[in-house]
Amino acid sequence: MNILFYFILYLIPACIFIFMAGMIYSHNRHSARHITCSLLYICTSMWFFGVFTSLVIYPKYFNTIIIYWINGAILIGALLALHLWLMNAKMYNSRNGKLFKLLFIPGILLLMTIPIDSWMLSSDASSQEALFIPGTGLYLIWIVDFIYLFINIILTVIEMKKGNNAAKLWLKGIALYFVWTVSLLTLSILFQGTSLYFFYYFIPHGSLFWMIAIFLSMSRYDYLSSYEKKYNILFQRAPLGILILDEKAKVVEASPRIFSYLAVEQQDLIQSPLVSFLGGVDRLVFMGKYQKSFAEEIKLKNAELSFENKAKQRKTVEVDSDFIQVEEKRLQVIMAKDITEAKIKEERVQYLAYHDMLTGLPNRAAFEKKIADLLSEKEIFYLLLLDLNKLKQINDTYGHQAGDYAIQRVANIIKGVVPSKYHVARLGGDEFVLLFNVDESEQIVKEIRSQLYLPMTLFDDKTISLSASIGVSRYPSDGETKDELYRVADKRMYAEKKNLDREKGEKTE
User: Ramachandran region of residue 85, left (φ > 0), alpha (ψ -120 to 50) or beta?
Assistant: First the structure.
């Protein structure tokens, strides 16, 4: 009958505490608060297991179990409770937050002195007949336990004044635990060796008030809930992609839009380095910039990042960022917006603004920008003008489609002859311009002419021959402005055109 009584009285509450510890830990395995709280429940369950063991399994080791097991578990639980309450009140984040860690020194030192029997008990701990008379060390453990409990009460009152509704529950639980434990501990010491010693059996049950208060506050006020739960709706429905990264750019959490941006599954991304999913990005450069910005807490604003995702799609995202403190850990929150389509449109508009649609060459606007840059550098360069001869005659004889084809043919010849490092543009109509910074004009002109002499086959298999007039000017000897250089090159080009017309006229005669 006694075994059943003790089983109900101690083992059932112990199992309930272990069950609640598992629930809290599974709620968020990465949260320092959740881990601390679950350990607190386990230490409390060890209190119940210890009393059951001392009364039923090994009663002859009653004193030893009380010292090493029960009071050790209670003291560790008191340390965990203090740590939990300091975290909850954000005391570690205050200006002198590191000093609060000194509060743990007395408890840790007393834990180290538990093996000293004469320090913990005043009687012979090995004697079954001896009364349980606490020693100086055990009294100090109890005093430290209650000091920690008193500090928790103060922190709870502070949280209540801040408007924390959960703190009202905590205060009720702590107060009941305090009154219950002090009362029954006092009665059990006073009446040990008498029929009223049964008070000892119920000392651990005061912890039920406190632990249940914590558990109820979790369900009612979402106490200790993880940021994953708090911001679940935001993560799931936000029009932006949201990333939470640590100092090593490892993904702590990410919203569904991030998975679609990167074309990866959640299980592959979480707890993995972000840079490993950014194709075409230099990892060393990326990590160097990231860690520098993290260390200096540089917040990003409208930054752009282009990469290739796992589906080989080119993506561009606009990034904003901020920093948060979660469970004593500094994290960076990144908000990313997919601007790939807008970027493509912008690049298309930019391309149209500076390129000729018929030939794909840069247009007059691009030429003026390029020559302005060259003039600002004040280095020697050459301007070559090329004009397709008899374009009007080709249009009139063979149609405008043939004229467009002729212009494209000239553009392709120039692109094939002129190195890509030099600037080539179509100014409009049948006029082209080249800018280069070394004297290769004779070789370039010769190559262009040799290519133009090759017959061009039209759509109806008719062939025609093309020719062009070319004029070259040199900066700064022929002019120091765009207009001066253009005028000299244009004059030389038309002089060549007249010579060609004169030569043809003489051949005709």
Answer: alpha
Total residue length of the chain? 509
What burial class does residue 421 get, using C-beta atoms within 10 Å of its C-beta: 0-12 exposed, 13-18 middle, 19+ buried? exposed
Question: Could you give the angle at the alpha carbon of 429 between the alpha carbons of 507 and 425, nearest 5°?
Answer: 105
Task: Classify residue 433 by burial, with Cβ atoms within 10 Å: 0-12, 13-18, 19+.
Answer: buried
- Residue 327 to residues 29, 87, 91, 304, Cα–Cα distance (Å): 12, 8, 12, 30
Q: Which two tokens mark 481?
A: 């402005």
Collapsing DSSP to helix, strand or coil, 17 comes out as: helix
- Digit-coded pLDDT (tens) for 487-507: 999 999 999 888 876 766 555
Residue 492 Cα distances to 364, 386, 426, 472, angstroms: 20, 10, 18, 7
d(CA 218, CA 152): 18
pTM confidence score:
0.49
Tell me the Ramachandran region of residue 61: left when phi exceeds 0, alpha when psi lies from -120 to 50, beta otherwise.
alpha
pLDDT above 80 for 122: no
pLDDT of residue 142: 87
Most confident of 310-319, 322-331, 455-464: 310-319
